[in-house]
Amino acid sequence: MTAQDPMMTSVSIAPDPKVEGILKAAWAGFAAYGFRKTSMDDIARGAGMSRPALYLHFKNKEAIFRGLVGLYYQGAEAEIRAALKEEVTLEAKLARAFAAHGGDSMEDMMSSAHGMELFEATMNVAGDMIEAGEGVLRGLYQEWLAQEAAKGAVSLSGSATQVAWLFCACLKGIKHNATGFAEYSTGVSDYARLCAMALKP
Questions:
Q1: Is 96 within 8 Å of 188 (Cβ atoms)?
Q2: CATH domain 17-199 topology
Q3: How far is CA 166 from CA 137, 154, 169, 170, 200, in A?
């Protein structure tokens, strides 16, 4: 696996301070100016390095964007795993997991004047990574639901596979229909509450 094209079964990007600096600078540029108007020069300047040095890590800004998507899924996977293991109420557990599914960048994206362009770029540049990443997250929910159902901690109206699919599909719907981050956050919290009520034994 390289920084230029991270692949996922379970997402993993090796920690590298320079790569992290590049990704942070790139995200700041994309959020401020949009994907199309942010240049490799802008990213190199934001990361405090020369353009040739930037090209040693990423061949173009599409590769950088894919790196950001990979980093997002890596973080979401770790945070959802942690949330589903917490000793809290079912509603609180789902609320934390669903919030982690959106990731820390959701507020930046929804607050940016270029949010729609960033959503489109995500699909155009890293659609395959999104499909793989969502599969990983769906698998986490599926495994957790099956384990909790076996213990009698939740009651499933369908299979764990079906309910996990519904989790992800509805979270995607909330993201794409929310008019801003506040509405998105409220929608995620409300959905967690509804799911907890439905899953209660």
A1: no
A2: Tetracycline Repressor; domain 2 (1.10.357)
A3: 12, 16, 5, 6, 16
Count CB-CB contacts under 10 A for residue 197: 10
Domain ranges of the chain: 17-199
Q: What is the pLDDT of residues 13-43, one digit of tens each?
A: 446 889 999 999 999 999 999 999 999 999 9
